[in-house]
Amino acid sequence: MLGEIQFDEWQCVAELVDNSFDDFSEIVRTGVEWPNGFKVSVSLPSSANGELVVTDTGQGMTYERLERAVRAGWSGNDMHDKLGLFGMGFNVATARLGKRTRVLTTRSGDSEWIGVEIDLDHIKDDFEATDITEPKSDPSQHGTRIIIDRLHGKRVEWLRRNAAVLRNVLGSVYSWILDARGFELYVGGTKVKPVRHCRWGDNRSVLYNGKERVPAHIEIDEVLQDGLACSDCGQWQLSQGDVCSGCGSDRLSVRKRRVWGWLGVQRYLHKTDYGIDFLRNGRKILRWDKQLFTWNNPDGVPGNEDPEYPIDLAHQGGRIIGEIHLDHVPVTYQKDAFEYADRSWRSAVELLRGVAPLQPKRAESLGYPENTSPLALLFKGYRRNDAGVRCLVPGDGRKPVHEDTRRWGHEFHRGNPDYQTDERWWQAALQHDEIKNKGKQAKTAASVPSQPDEQAVLDALGVPADAPASGVIPTATQETVPETGGGAPTVAKQKTETRSERLARYERASTRHSYLSRPFGHPELGYLNVETRLLKNGGPLLDDTGQAVPVLLDQRAGNELMAFLDVEHEVFQRFGADYADLLLVELAPLLKVRSRSQWNPSQLLAGIRAQSLKDSALDGTTVGAEARDLLNEIRSRAVAELNRAGGHHEMFGRLTKEERHAAEESMIAAGRVGEVGALGEDAGFIAYLPPLALVRLVETTPEAFLDGRVFRGPYTTVHSPAARSLSLARVTGYLADVATIGTFASEATVLQLQRARLSVTLLADELAGDE
Description:
Elements: H1 9-30, E1 39-43, E2 52-56, H2 63-69, H3 88-97, E3 98-106, E4 112-119, E5 130-135, E6 143-151, H4 153-161, H5 163-173, H6 175-180, E7 184-187, E8 190-191, E9 205-208, E10 212-215, E11 217-230, E12 252-270, E13 275-280, E14 283-289, E15 294-295, E16 306-307, E17 318-325, H7 343-353, H8 360-365, H9 374-382, H10 402-414, H11 423-446, H12 454-461, E18 480-481, E19 490-491, H13 499-508, E20 510-512, E21 518-522, E22 526-535, E23 551-555, E24 560-566, H14 570-573, H15 579-595, H16 601-612, H17 620-645, H18 648-653, H19 657-669, H20 691-700, H21 721-744, H22 750-766
Parallel strand pairs: 1-7, 13-17, 22-24
Antiparallel strand pairs: 1-2, 2-6, 3-4, 3-6, 4-5, 7-8, 9-10, 11-12, 12-17, 13-14, 15-16, 18-19, 20-22, 21-22, 23-24
Helix pairs in contact: 1-3, 15-16, 17-21, 17-22, 20-21, 21-22
């Protein structure tokens, strides 16, 4: 019957590992030297008739301790200090895995291994198990060994085929123990590595509302008032007494209660791998838990839960993470949940996320004071996923590069040393802002002459056109040096720049392009690791023959390449060529030669692009998501601006009946049922307007959106009606394209998708607030 209790295979193994780690922790608490180290080894079955063996280097057990340890229903472990429930947990785990279990244990100095064999096919009504012994070659040996054989069919197949999966799960479950206590765990002869969080560094932060600094990592350490708890059932006592109010035990003791750990921000967004890990005695009970992201209305009824994160661009996933230790909160027997009805859990939740909604406006509308909890602070600073330093999101100058950051996160977890710090993510966020700002500066410079018309100035001064330009320093490639003896000046010989010097100069004068710095290739061609750099002021870009080229490759060690792109080359400036296309033109022949491929040029380009630049695919799903992301950004900026400057009442009055109904339906679909009646009291209604209704509002009330409010284009400051119309048309034209594709992306043709993607880029450049 114990074997029928639902435990996954990894949980069964973990139950046995728990007991070994408990033994190790007890040794550590005593301060005794343990020269052989703390090591647990899990040997997996190699065949259907194989066995599972768990061995540790602990202190071993006496005969009396062993007798109690394997008795079902008995636990010698304190409910608050230990991971394992040796006894019940041991019997459930072993019975779940196989029909026969042998436990052998010995202490240093013992003459033999002593143990017990539990054979479920032969055990009788008295439930007596057979004592066993084994000779001991070295009297100094110590530890415990558990051997399980006659394994159940499904379980043995899972254990045979999933060694890597088991290591990854256990590496996550025990990550803190493996890191902080230095215990070692091996599965199938391979050491289990702790699965750490890929989070931003302690020194990173963002500025919320231009004034409040929000760190990307918040330490949590709250010591609560000591409490009286039962050592048998674990229940905390509501009142003083001599016996437990739950089980009647007299094993009551004063216990410390503490909530500690950290909350932070992951370096990449993920649809599932975000949330908070909750630990008890160093083992993770909950992983990627998202309960605290949902607000439970204390005045509501069960089922009235309202998810609050992620809500902005929720399809991209989330990035708020954390590790919180709750050693004083009881857990379920399967160790996959806490006792959520226990007041210790509820008080911990209140401490971490507060009682009010995380959304400031929503909390205010419901009459709650500002939520100042640690989670609410992180929510304010990092609920948005806009590219750039402002939100700590890497980008390519046009949009976030979420696919890249997830790939970098994979490299972090693989242990690649180049991805262990957050520097690559930070530089990509900085570079996004730099590219974006340079683009805006270039647009501004295009409307203002960069150089004065020298001839016009000379004409105005009355200077003849053929007059010598006295006092003007001539430009030359040679340096004139006066003769020291008073004779005629000599011309110094110009130094020839070597190739390595030229490449070093290009590298100094260029910036890394994060989006195009990635592996390029195809499974049939192999891959090249390319770092792409944009040359801006160090051009022209010359090849080894002295010819100006738009792209130059420099072969480094192995498969490493550095690619320089001259952004001032006419193919980019006059003809609008795409950086990626010309880079692929240069890379394709290299990959063809390396792989001795018979592919033709177009096949090479198509295959490499499809494999290496998947996120640039021109399909309705991708472009539609980009359009909706930008529309949400525009809505958010408009809400903030109108709430600040006013005018939302008049704007709400301009909505048609159909537009109001559509906003109400969208609000209800988003779970904002209780706020529908207040629609129009602030600018929040804009967040729920249909995209094309937003276009109409900009067209009818341009003074509320332009002049640096939401879009940077001028309107009220322009006196010419024609110029006003032109400035407005620039924005509404792009916005109409984006709104249309955001609504009807699945029906768009390739040409429409190309136009929409270009409009997304151009409209993003029109946004105000980043100059």
